[in-house]
């Protein structure tokens, strides 16, 4: 008897079981991926420094503390939907993009001001009669309940079919940002909207007060890290009038440099160089309003020949001692151990030490199975 080509029937025949296909088996087979599975090529809406980002049919997260430039990034994304390039942000397609901005946080007057006076100026539209309203679908839902917002967001995406939908902010779509069930359901709904409407869903969220880039607020923040294609972080650069946009995570295309910008008197962003956050050549360097006393550091872990006197650490020695034989530590536990060993006192300075250790590929931040931020100690290269 000829062997059937159906893999499920083949498996049943080889197992000597009666051949019977249930509806559940058919549904299961629909989710199977093989080497012959046909998949659509990833399509990206924008590039930053030439790196593709904001994919269709997927989720992007933009995070940052209050007043860190998140709304300015939204404005750039909106302007770049009409104008081909804004700073280092560039639209991939020749055709303009249709942008849906779902604002849950600001007043109606502020939302309109951003649309007309900020985005309008960025695309150089001075006459309200020529404003490209057909490219922008802006909704202010500050006075709505979370349930009303979610229902209206779903309707707006299905009705207007945007290329990118920006939800600002995602926490206002929920009754409880620490509800695991509600968080998972919301993320699944956003992912379904992206896939069914061939658009990118971008969600804005605050980070916790620790300032750590991957420490997003609430249980919803942990789920967003798990589900997002990429995560961007917005920051106000300490001691300057500049802001930065950097990528902290991506599944495939990692941006290895941040975009720095400042704001003109007219409220319009313009390109700024990377600020010098170290200052002069003395032993005391400012970190925000605090001062780092380098002379008080534990000399066992410093390097007298360090190229940067502001970060005079033997990073490999310090973090190897902090891990103390462990392959991975929780983020808070590593911070506690490292600060005790090094005599570092300021939290923000520690974050810079950790960032430099990660840049040197000594440690790497990862997501644990429980949705928390962990840190791996990488082997010497």
- Please give the share of residues in helix: 25-40%
On the 0 to 100 scale, the average pLDDT is 87
Quick one: biggest sheet?
A: 9 strands, mixed
- Gyration radius (Cα, Å) is 24 Å
End-to-end separation in angstroms reads: 57 Å
Listing every helix as H and every strand as E from the N terminus to the C terminus, the arrangement reads HHEEEHEEEHEHEHEHEEEEEEHEHHEE
**Dominant shape:** globular
What proportion of the residues form beta strands (DSSP E)?
A: 15-25%
Low-confidence stretches: 278-290
Coarse structural class: alpha/beta
Read across the widest sheet, the strand sequence of neighbours is 7-6-8-9-3-10-11-12-13
**Number of DSSP strand runs:** 18
Q: What's the number of helices? A: 10
Q: How would you sum up this structure, described in words?
A:
There is one protein chain. The chain has 381 residues and is an alpha/beta fold. It is built from ten helices and 18 strands. The strands form four sheets. Strands 7-6-8-9-3-10-11-12-13 form a nine-stranded mixed beta sheet, sandwiched between helices. Strands 2-1-5-4 form a four-stranded antiparallel beta sheet, covered by helices on one side. Strands 16-18-17 form a three-stranded antiparallel beta sheet. Strand 11 and strand 12 form a beta hairpin. Helix 6 runs parallel beside helix 7 and helix 8 (315-323) crosses helix 9. The longest helix has 18 residues, at 180-197. 34% of the residues are buried.
């Amino acid at each position: 008897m000829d062997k059937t080509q159906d893999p499920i029937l083949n498996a049943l025949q080889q197992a000597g079981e009666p051949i019977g296909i249930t509806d559940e088996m058919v549904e299961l087979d629909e989710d199977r991926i093989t080497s012959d599975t046909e998949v659509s090529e990833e399509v990206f809406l924008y590039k930053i420094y030439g790196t593709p980002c904001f994919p269709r049919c997927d989720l992007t997260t933009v995070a940052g503390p209050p007043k860190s430039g998140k709304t300015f990034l939204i404005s750039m994304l909106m302007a770049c939907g009409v104008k081909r390039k804004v700073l280092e942000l560039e639209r991939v397609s020749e055709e303009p993009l249709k942008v849906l901005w779902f604002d849950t946080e600001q007043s109606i007057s502020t939302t309109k001001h951003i649309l007309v006076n900020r985005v309008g100026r960025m695309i150089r539209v001075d006459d309200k009669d020529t404003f490209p309203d057909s490219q922008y679908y802006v909704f202010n839902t500050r006075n709505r309940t979370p349930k009303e917002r979610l229902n209206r967001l779903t309707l707006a995406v299905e009705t207007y079919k945007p290329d990118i939908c920006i939800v600002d902010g995602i926490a206002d779509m929920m009754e409880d940002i620490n509800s695991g069930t509600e968080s998972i359901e919301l993320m699944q709904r956003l992912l379904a909207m992206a896939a069914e409407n061939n658009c990118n869903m971008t969600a804005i969220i605050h980070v916790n007060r620790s300032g750590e880039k991957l420490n997003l607020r609430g249980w919803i923040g942990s789920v967003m890290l798990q589900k997002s294609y990429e995560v961007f972080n917005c920051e106000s650069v300490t001691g300057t009038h500049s802001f930065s946009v950097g990528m902290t995570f991506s599944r495939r295309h990692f941006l290895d440099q941040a975009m720095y910008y400042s704001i003109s008197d007219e409220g319009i962003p313009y390109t700024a160089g990377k600020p010098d956050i170290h200052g002069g050549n003395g032993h005391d360097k400012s970190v925000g309003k605090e001062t780092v006393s380098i002379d008080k550091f534990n000399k066992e872990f410093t390097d007298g020949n360090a190229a940067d006197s502001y970060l005079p650490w033997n990073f490999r020695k310090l973090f190897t001692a902090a891990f103390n034989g462990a392959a991975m530590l929780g983020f808070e536990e590593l911070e506690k151990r490292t600060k005790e060993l090094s005599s570092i006192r300021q939290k923000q300075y520690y974050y810079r030490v950790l960032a430099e250790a990660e840049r040197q590929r000594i440690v790497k931040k990862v997501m644990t199975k429980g949705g928390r931020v962990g840190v791996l100690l990488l082997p010497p290269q």
